[in-house]
Design goal:
Blueprint (H helix, E strand, L loop, with lengths): L5 H9 L6 H18 L3 H6 L5 E4 L6 H12 L3 E5 L15 H21 L1 H16 L28 H15 L6 E7 L14 H4 L3 H8 L4 E7 H16 L2 H15 L1 E5 L17 H13 L2 E4 L2 E4 L4 E6 L11 H5 L3 E4 L5 H9 L5 H10 L4 E4 L1 H17 L6 H10 L1 H6 L7 E4 L1 H13 L1 H7 L1
Parallel strand pairs: 1-8, 1-9, 2-5, 5-8, 10-11
Antiparallel strand pairs: 3-4, 6-7
Length: about 450
């Protein structure tokens, strides 16, 4: 983060997201401020709260993508959740604290996977020795190699009685590394991961009650193993994975995960506009204001119990987003508004932005389809006027039906190339050019029929 200046953050976001400069600037400043806070004295660090952000704009303009790319850029723990999934306690839904438990769980799994990758080489060496022990048990004598029911090497000449065992093991090692034994089978003792399923029904929810049930049962019951007959190639993978898990320090991972979430976690709360505004419907319904009040202490800063320890949410960065078609940010309760001091409006996308989205980003949609069809040996090329035509059709469909932003391009591209994608393995013509007349022929019949467009596009 020391070298990642706000301008550089915006440049990195520009590689994936077209336009929305104000939003990129705001999140870049928020991210840099987190690094600045960590350079201060401990006492002052605790006083500086993160400046949470509300991104306001229609669907498909890049709100989620900005938050996701931001997290990837800084390797921060990231979790996305829809505000509409939360309900007040007593109703069917998710407890608001579950998002903290989920982000910690994701971070623990991520750190565990990284550490396992780091010790793969050492684990592979240990696994090799274990497999060799199965092929040549320590108790076996003479030059006969025992491999349960299948003889891998029938005999080894006894040139030297004292070194027969060593030379046999080394010969097996060479055969194992060269892959000559991959298709052979061995009996292997592996850990039995199956565990009893326990369901707990309670008005406080399964998440809260079942938090440590699996761990508790695992500690009470003895570790069970089972014998499996597997090919040596698969056995190497299984044993390497098992050895890697033994080499990982889970206690340190849990501590590091909690610290990472507390200091650099990013939680993206989508659809926050769905819990804003006054209730107008009749009958029993969960109050939107109630959900906001449940959300408030998490955003404000509180201590949430998880199975990995207590997590403080004081310095987690919350980025909320919503279209706010019906409601407006001022419809949120004042306390929650105060916890999201930065508000950024994202612009709707037009034909020029759609054209750039199709071609410019690293993961541009046209590049994706070119790569997909190249796997079938087909080279597909889009002319400049074809790209412009797709963009203008996307604008027209968004204006006459529901405006879903850049997501409309996915629908149009899939419909446009549907026949090629279906027949690709059998197409003899390996060079295909997509031009504007072809785009018009494929899509305008649907676009012209407004009722049909509503269903298909």
């Amino acid at each position: 983060m020391k070298d990642l200046k706000p301008g550089q953050i915006v440049k990195e976001l520009d590689k994936y997201i077209i336009g929305q400069d104000d939003a990129k600037k705001s999140v870049a400043i928020a991210l840099r401020n987190r690094w600045r806070r960590r350079q201060l004295d401990k006492d002052l660090q605790e006083e500086i709260a993160p400046k949470n952000i509300i991104l306001i704009g229609p669907t498909g303009v890049g709100k989620t993508e900005i938050a996701r790319r931001l997290a990837n850029l800084t390797d921060s723990p990231f979790y996305k959740v829809e505000a509409s999934k939360f309900t007040e306690v007593g109703y069917v839904g998710r407890d608001v604290e579950s998002m903290i438990r989920d982000i910690v769980e994701l971070t623990v799994n991520s750190l565990k996977a990284r550490q396992q990758d780091a010790v793969q080489e050492k684990a592979a060496r240990t696994a090799e020795e274990r497999i060799l022990d199965v092929l040549l048990p320590p108790s076996s004598q003479g030059g006969v190699v025992i491999s349960n029911e299948i003889d891998i090497v029938e005999t080894v000449k006894k040139d030297d009685q004292n070194h027969t065992k060593t030379s046999t093991r080394e010969k097996l090692r060479k055969m194992l590394r060269s892959g000559k034994l991959d298709s052979r089978q061995v009996d292997l003792e592996v850990a039995d991961k199956s565990s009893p399923i326990v369901e707990i029904f309670s008005n406080t929810g399964i998440e809260e009650m079942g938090i440590n049930v699996k761990d508790m049962l695992g500690n009470l019951m003895p570790k069970s193993t089972k014998r499996r007959k597997v090919k040596i190639k698969e056995a190497m993978k299984l044993v390497t994975q098992e050895e890697a898990s033994h080499l990982v320090d889970m206690d340190q991972i849990k501590t590091d995960a909690v610290t990472m979430v507390e200091q650099s976690g990013i939680i993206f709360i989508d659809e926050i506009d769905k819990i804003a505004g006054k209730e107008k419907s009749q009958g029993p319904e969960v109050s939107k204001e109630g959900v906001q009040r449940d959300l408030l202490p998490i955003v404000e800063g509180s201590s949430v119990p998880t199975k990995y320890g207590i997590v403080k949410t004081d310095h987690i960065l919350f980025i909320a987003s919503g279209a706010f078609h019906v409601s407006k940010p001022s419809d949120l309760i004042p306390e929650l508004q105060g916890r999201f001091p930065i508000r950024v409006e994202l612009n709707s996308l037009g034909a020029s932005e759609f054209t750039r989205i199709l071609t410019e980003p690293k993961n541009a949609l046209i590049l994706q389809y070119i790569a997909l069809l190249r796997t079938e040996g087909i080279e597909i090329e889009f002319t400049k006027d074809a790209v412009g035509k797709i963009a203008s059709i996307a604008v027209d469909v968004n204006s006459t039906t529901e405006n879903i932003g850049a997501r409309r391009l996915h629908t149009l591209m899939e419909k446009l190339l549907e026949d090629f994608l279906f027949a690709a393995p059998d197409i003899e013509e390996k060079k295909i050019v997509i031009d504007a007349p072809f785009v018009e022929e494929q899509l305008m019949n649907i676009v012209g029929n407004e009722d049909l467009a509503r269903y298909i596009l």
